[in-house]
Write a structure and sequence with these properties.
heterodimer, A: TIM Barrel, eight-stranded parallel barrel, B: 23% helix
Chain lengths: 263, 204
């Protein structure tokens, strides 16, 4: 049985681990490397690492930092931020990334998704969508760390991303992000209905039941979260234990991991 | 012990290198096919499509050297994900293409039986061991490994299948034919069970 993944998200800027509320009010909350070491030790399902300043500062990702981070990470590592062309993807993969998120660059040039999926395989390419709800209730995609509206409707864009070869969609609610008031379940459901590729839900997790709702009601294949892990005592393992009790298949809440000796 | 990782511009080389180093191997990532001759173990990683993968191997003159090393020198070879699929005779992803022909079989797209099973198959899933093999020493039935793929290896000979995984029915997740092995999952990203498999490979 394929397990539902619980994925900590690490946002970073100028070598600092940061977290905001609604993609704003960024707070420094520590350093990236120790956080990666802890999550690796805790054997999390996967990690998402996004350089939130790269695109805004019109620069490429900091490959040497990514190399340093990935050296400590033996679980799947998804890297994003500043992914503007195929060469950036190639360099990130060489720096130890396993999957890449594409966000802002795809709006200006949707063909980028097609080329990236063709060159590196769909399984490597996650299209990340930052969504804001409009007054009429529809959802609009935003680029450049949520600072620019794109005029694109989220469901239609997710469907186009799939058609162009994206392997997964990472959907984040800008309004819910950092609030810990729960995922935007309508948004997640909206996207999972529009695509047949796996969808990673992000933005708003504040308690254990929020994760369950994103899976059960949102139909997410994986759930990402940051604040709940940074600011509360809750761990990804506790989330998974909770999910297991609710009948969701998760990985590794048992302790007798084989291969542990000398590992 | 010199492990040569084949660098044919397809994939997460950084990850693969580090996990093998973590398991104590001396690793060379090589773009020079003749370096296979001095290898004690060979790793064919890979992320991308079958068609592009074979094209790159061909353009960079890897194919004859790989076949020589695997079939004549009998150097243990581990194909990972796309690298496993390329061991087959034939693939269809990105267009019809001949594979390396090292393990009889073909590579086809998974077919999801319902809307519940999405493609690509991404995440942690278990293996069920169909035949005991040293590559799986110390690894149990139902241990989870990390997968990310939409195509699967359909082996012609059942005895080449070592483990299966339940998704879209069942597909082959580990193949072994003499010194030639392949895993559909990514041992380099599969935490402790993955390290165990890498160590098993290094001690073959």
């Amino acid at each position: 049985m394929l397990k539902t993944r619980v994925i900590p998200t690490l946002l970073w800027k100028n070598e600092c681990l940061v977290k905001g509320i609604g993609f704003d009010s960024w707070r420094r909350i520590g350093s990236v490397l120790p956080a990666i070491k802890v999550y690796n030790l805790r054997d999390v399902d996967e990690l998402i690492l996004v350089d939130i300043a790269a695109t805004l500062e019109k620069r490429e990702p900091d490959y040497s930092s990514v190399s340093e981070f990935s050296a400590e990470c033996f679980v799947p590592l998804t890297v994003g931020g500043g992914v503007g062309d195929l060469d950036v993807i190639r360099k990130l993969l060489l720096s130890g990334a396993d999957k890449i998120t594409i966000n802002s660059a795809a709006y200006e040039n949707p063909e980028f998704i097609t080329q990236a999926a063709k060159r590196f395989g769909s399984q490597c390419i996650i299209v990340s969508i930052d969504a804001r709800r409009k007054s009429d209730g529809s959802y609009e995609c935003h680029s450049h760390s949520g600072t620019r509206s794109t005029g694109r409707e989220v469901g239609a864009w997710a469907a186009e991303a799939e058609k162009r070869g994206a392997g997964e969609i990472l959907i984040t609610s800008i309004e819910h992000d950092g609030t810990m008031k729960g995922y935007d379940l309508d948004l997640i459901r909206h996207v999972t209905q529009k695509v047949s590729i796996p969808v990673i839900a992000s933005g708003g997790a504040g308690c254990l039941n929020d994760f369950y709702a994103a899976i059960l009601q949102g139909k997410a294949a994986a759930i990402a979260a940051a604040s709940i892990f940074h600011f509360t005592e809750k761990t990804p393992l506790e989330v998974k234990e909770h999910l297991r009790k609710q009948g969701i298949h998760v990985r590794g809440t048992h302790t007798d991991q084989p291969g542990k000796v000398g590992a | 012990m010199n492990v040569v990782i084949i660098d044919y511009n397809m994939g997460n080389l950084g990850s693969v290198r580090r996990s093998f180093e973590e398991c104590g191997a001396q690793v060379t990532c090589s773009q020079t096919p003749s370096e296979l001759r001095s290898a004690s173990k060979i790793v064919l990683p890979g992320v991308g499509s079958f068609y592009d993968g074979m094209q790159h191997l061909n353009t960079m003159d890897w194919i004859q050297e790989i076949r020589q090393a695997a079939l004549v020198e009998k150097i243990p070879l581990l194909g990972i994900c796309l690298g496993m699929q390329l061991l087959a005779d034939h693939g269809t992803e990105g267009g019809n293409m001949e594979g390396l022909g090292l393990i009889p079989g073909k590579v086809e797209k998974l077919s999801p039986p319902s809307g519940e099973e999405r493609l690509p198959h991404v995440g942690w899933n278990e293996i069920s061991i169909t035949r005991p093999h040293p590559i799986l020493s110390g690894i149990q039935d139902r241990d989870d490994f990390y997968f990310v793929h939409s195509y699967h290896f359909r082996a012609l000979n059942e005895e080449d299948v070592v483990a299966q995984t339940p998704y879209c029915g069942h597909f082959t997740s580990v193949v072994a034919h003499k010194n030639i092995l392949g895993t559909q999952f990514h041992p380099e990203k599969s935490s402790k069970a993955g390290f165990r498999l890498i160590r098993n490979f290094l001690s073959l």
